[in-house]
Amino acid sequence: MSIRAMPRKSCSMSDRLRLNQAARILLGVWMAGIIVAMFLIVPQYVGLGDAGRIIILHVPTAWITTVAFAVSAVYSIRYLWKRRAADDAGAVAAAEAGFLFCVLATVSGMWFANIVWGTPWNWDPRETTILILLLIYAAYFALRSALDDVERRRRLSAVYNLFAAVTMPFLLFVAPRMAESTLHPNCAFIQGSHCDGIWLEMNGTRVGQLGDVVLALQGIEQRGDLAVVQVEVRMPGLRDVALLTPSFELSSGKPADRPEFPGQQFLLAVEGVDLTNGRALLNMEAPGTGLLSNSRTFWTFMAANIGFLGLFIWLYRLRADVLLLQERLARREVTYGLPA
């Protein structure tokens, strides 16, 4: 009976190895296909050109960051409950993978910001909060490396990891939406959403902000069916100051000319005027249509989410196995008195 069971076990291990190898090949082909589709199949975003393709990389890596840190927190809870080394290894591996994806999301966002807003870093609320999140998890890794006692290191790092996980949703989802000033295109960039805009008036509040851009109303003039608004635009850090003249079609009640913000590809639009009281409703718009309105972009985007999720699973499992192997080797060195 036992003699027959051994070949079955060996066969099962062989099947698992072949399955793992096939999964790795499939993941590699899948990710290669996403990269090819990102540059050759996904069309350019009107007004943003090739910069619009960043959504295929930036958004999935940002989402996988939250998944990875959440998985790490779950493993930390399991460790505090059962005190198993495998759970500690899973927490560390998931946190390291999450940190990597967080860096990718940050770098890709900086690349997009440099193209669209003219600066890679402007201390935008989203940029600031994701930097804080990176520092929190960097401190987690520093804490682990600073403690020599294995059990104490695992216990304290698990508690700290739970604290880090609690801050994550606030830093990524709550704090950026609480800020009134942000360059990140919360409303202008996403299809179907709408920015509120700001009312400025000649005899009242003449200065306001759209994101981190300061607007100063200089005048309103009617030219036939058009209401032409003169707006002084001061970009973040006063690196660019320009006088823009967006216009509004009185008969249709729709914006006419939409000039670009200096150094950006977002547009300044007039969405309403009150000529009697000298008031204008100014707003920020993204050029062109929504990214995901195109079916090729949508399916490539969905495939990217699946691919990056698979990449995370592979990375964190591989890292967890390495950590457990390192621990077994360390125990063997202690048991047999081998030199480290």
Give the topology, please:
Elements: H1 2-40, H2 55-82, H3 85-116, H4 125-146, H5 150-178, E1 198-201, E2 207-210, E3 213-223, E4 226-234, E5 241-244, E6 247-249, E7 254-255, E8 267-274, E9 279-285, H6 295-336
Antiparallel strand pairs: 1-9, 2-3, 3-4, 4-5, 4-6, 6-7, 8-9
Please name the defining characteristics of this protein:
340 residues, 3-stranded antiparallel sheet, 6 helices, 9 strands, 56% helix, 15% strand
Written account of the structure:
The structure is a single chain. With about 350 residues, the chain is α+β, with helices and mostly antiparallel strands. The protein is about 55% helix and about 15% strand. The chain contains six helices and nine strands, in the order αααααβββββββββα. The chain has helices at about 1-40, 55-80, 85-115, 125-145, 150-180, 295-335, and strands at about 200, 205-210, 215-225, 225-235, 240-245, 245-250, 255, 265-275, 280-285. The strands form two sheets. Strands 2, 3, 4, 5, 6 and 7 form a six-stranded antiparallel sheet that branches. It has a three-stranded antiparallel sheet with strand order 1-9-8, with no helix packed on it. A hairpin with a 6-residue loop joins strand 4 and strand 5. Helix 2 (about 55-80) runs parallel beside helix 6 (about 295-335). The longest helix is centred in the C-terminal third of the chain and has 42 residues, at about 295-335. It is elongated, with a radius of gyration of 27 Å. The mean pLDDT is about 85.
